[in-house]
Write a structure and sequence with these properties.
Shape of chain B: globular
Number of helices of chain A: 6
Radius of gyration of chain B: 13 Å
Distance between the termini of chain A: 11 Å
Number of strands of chain A: 10
Oligomer: heterodimer
Strand order of the largest sheet of chain A: 2-1-3-7-8-10
Largest interface: A-B, 38 and 25 residues
Structural class of chain B: mainly alpha
Largest sheet of chain A: 6 strands, mixed
Amino acid sequence: MKKTILVTRPDYDDATGYLFHYSKQIINSAKNIKVLDLTRPRLTRKNFTNLIHKQNPLLIFFNAHGNENLIYGDKIGGKEEILVEENKNHSLLTNRITYARACWAAASLGKTCVAEGGCFIGYKTPFSFWFDERWSAKPSNDKIARIFLEPSNLIVSSLLKGNSAQEAFDKSITLSKKHIMKLLKIKEEPGMMASIMILWNNIKGQDIFGDRNLCFL
Amino acid sequence: MINKNVKELVLWRLETSVPEHFKLSVGAKGSFTKKELKEHIQKEDDIGLAFVDLQLNFIKALTNGEFSKSLAE
């Protein structure tokens, strides 16, 4: 039986637009894996909950906005809909590997949802990135955003290759550091120090909880 | 309230290190150009304070050796 990954991909502002594009790269590269790709109009709390109960995905990959206690899905009727909330339905993530490419969710929700099993990777700070506003309509051409989003994509691509959650986490941090070193070597790079500052922010904010030896394959 | 010297330092670093076409995505708070970030820092609102924190944390890591130690690991 194929292993299953559930990916949430809203696309209603700059941040979610970039995450939407970058998570598509992961989906395109997934081989022999069942991908549940939740985008508008299917990205609703009801569908999300039903898919978890019926398809039992081992890996959940959120691309979203969030805070310490919750992760959002799509904006419906002008209002962001909550997909997972601490002390309400956080047990949906228990016994799974979750990567939340979202702000703050590792600060509290991440710990709570794996208290009885599973692993959670996320950020205890805002997940931030610079992008080139000239390319915001075509993120694939944006070389600035790539510096920040490639290390985060590496978490999921490593998991899909069979690495443990800890290995995926470490590879991502290592790639961010490599990008910092590369930027430091190209001193004339415009925005070099500003980019390094944000890479550092994401390195410091990235956190992992629960069973770090869990593997997707 | 942000200390006057800190505010000046952060505004100077923003001016000198961020190209005009760069925009910073800060999750649900939105995305901001250099000009918008400067306005938020001047107003000392949530976005401005968050950016000041980001800068100060980075400067701290640079000066106390945490940054270079981490890269060397």
